[in-house]
Amino acid sequence: MPTPIITKDLCKGCELCVHACPEGVLEMSTEINAKGYFFPVAAHPEKCTGCRYCLLVCPDTAIQIEAKGKVTVRTEGLTDKQFHYCPGCTHGVIHRLVAECLEELGIRERTVGVAPVGCSVLAYDYFNCDMHEASHGRAMAVATGIKRGRKDLVVFSYQGDGDLASIGMAETVHTANRGEKITVIFVNNAIYGMTGGQMAPTTLAGQVASTCPLGRDVNHAGWPIRVVELLQSLRTPAYLARVSVHDPKSILAAKRAIRKAFKYQIDGVCFSFVEVVSTCPTGWGMQPHESCNWLEENMIPYYPLGEVKTPETAA
Amino acid sequence: MHSEIIMAGFGGQGVLLIGKLLAYAGMKAGNEVTWMPAYGPEMRGGTCNCTVVLSDKPVGSPITRSPHALIVLNLPSLEKFESAVRPGGVIVVNTSLINRLPARSDVRTVPVAANEIAQEAGTPKAANMVALGAFLGATGLGDMAVVKEVLGETFASRPKLIDLNQTCLDRGYEIGKACAAQARS
Amino acid sequence: MAKKLMKGCEAIGEAAINAGCRLFFGYPITPQNEIPEYLSARLPQVGGTFLQAESEVAASNMLYGAAGAGCRVFTSSSSPGISLMMEAMSYLAGAELPVVVVNIMRGGPGLGGILPSQSDYFQATKGGGHGDYRVLVLAPSTVQEAVDLTQDAFDLADEYRNPVMVVGDGLIGQMMEPVEFKRTISPEDLPPKPWATTGCAGRKPNIINSLLLNPEHLEAHNWHLHRKYQEMVKEIRWEDWLLDEPVDVLIVAYGTVARICKTAIDVLRARGIKVGLFRPITLYPFPEPQLSAAVDKAKKVLVTELSTGQMLEDVRAVVAGRKPVSFFGRVGGMVMTPEEIEHEVDKLVVQG
Lengths: 315, 185, 352
Fold this sequence. Notes:
heterotrimer, B: alpha/beta, Pyruvate-ferredoxin Oxidoreductase, domain 3, 6-stranded mixed sheet, 6 helices, 6 strands, C: alpha/beta, Rossmann fold, 2 domains, 5-stranded mixed sheet, 12 helices, globular
């Protein structure tokens, strides 16, 4: 019988797993862990079907599944370091997806990642491969330098919306337009998280942020930028996809897109770009599961999911 | 030996090229040389000039306010640089495009109808070579054989132009030499 | 190898190739366009990569990537473009990455002009970007020296794991002089860089980083960098010219200005005036003890630059009030003539 195994001290009490479980296996504890958070417990283990939804949504790799005597393990694409992200922040999920792809594709030892400035500035501590920390907005330029210097390496950048779509927009457009054989993971949570919740280039119309306290006024700040569609207008970039991480099925689809993006790079096919629509519960001022619902209701209509362009459709 | 030469004309008349040939030939002959173009806004369309320094010791300043010699292919260049030439210096004047001779009596003037001579030889474009030849003939600076050699190297990809340019160089050289002989007599 | 007549900019490009560099990232700006133009044709011939970036900001960050991945890499620009690279310069210094940056200086501030200048001396020698850092700065005065120093710059950058800047002015970039490429090394023969991000097979991941949030670690890092900069005094280079005997006037000048001074000194010496020249070749570290010794032999010091007095401050610090220091500068793209230098020296001599 499958059972979720919870490493309680990794947990930040976001409750995403409890909401994700379709069978009601998990409940939050009444005691707190070493970090001071309530953590999930398998209150009804007999109901577990081994669907792994809890594992998929956990941003802190605190849940593994035991089934038929085997236990899932944390991917070797991640270091042992615990994420510093806020409770329920989906960066942890996206990190795990990227890291799993590095492991599954057998490229970890020949991959160099580039971390941005933003919440994921410390990503170099988490990915278990060679890493660069770039200045704000320049990750794709740094990635270009690495890839042009060492074509045998697999190079990816991991960037947020302020980094990629505001200060680094020139680098974004031109790196894509040159068709650099790199993979870009673009985490769009519609807000500046690290600096405390200011307006991002992707903040939705009417969405409140600390520098647009009455909501984004599109007559003042313009409409939020749809980066994938913007890049679609360029002829060169060939793999452009938008995915989300607000529920288990979306997370699985996100993984497939990220994997494909790396595969295209490994095969020397094209520049590959995956926008991951994600949440910022702290910046948005919501509970983690509420932010997932908010994402689904507000972000996806404006940022539609799917593969906008593939090398096959481009040809 | 130390000689500072300014070559000037309209953009497109090839003054930078004859400067390079002179510098290149100087280097081949074992001299220290510099070639310095004026690269300012004047490059665009207006007058164009470069300074060549030939010396038997390392060259200090690559630019000069008082050249030993001046090659001018158009009137604005003569007006700009005439007064700068050192007393006893040489001014090669392209009389095809310049309707007056230098007013100074303390310099040697070498008038040469560079455009007409080049035209007769087959192309008006080689007026710069005629002027360079006249300068070499009048001053005795540089070895014609070496200049022709570097000219051959410069036009290696367009061999048709080599003979033509060498002819122009020779025509100019004769005029310059005659001018020098006349000055001595 | 026979001497070739080359433009300064092109010679610098060829020098980089001779130093085993196969990567160039840059953005066009006058008066250094001959460097990228030359390399765009030349690098592919030797299996290298030339890439025109979308901006100097991007180009300098491409350097950060390539240098971190262990490649010899360089860029060139001119003053306004160098300003845009100053952010990356700070990161490169912080992450201790070896790169070579050539600045063919033009007149400023702002867009300024395109003619020769030395007005980026402060920016080059005092760090230029944010944070407590320095780059090693080399200032050639002939095209041959530009070649030799550019090649050395790559070795020095690797040795100190630090950016090295070669500063020239428009004169040296545009001028043609005979040059000789005395040594050449291919990329395969360069020493390995075990710290570089070349893929973590068989070792722990390498991280290229300048972020140290722990203040104790950042302080330690800053002092480590400081000690490294102090070690660079071993690399100090300078030229004493006609300083065997005491002089009435010691001229201090660098780059092409120094050779203009040499022409003036020839004339002054012929007139019986005792003048000598001290030429810093490394601008950082500044040749302080060497200049101090030269100052001891002089009655007066004349500093001349294509600026309103930047190196002047470093000279004054060395002279420390021992001798009178006067200054003559031309700016905005105007270049002093040998006659003007003569005149300045004459004034000092007449004053007695």
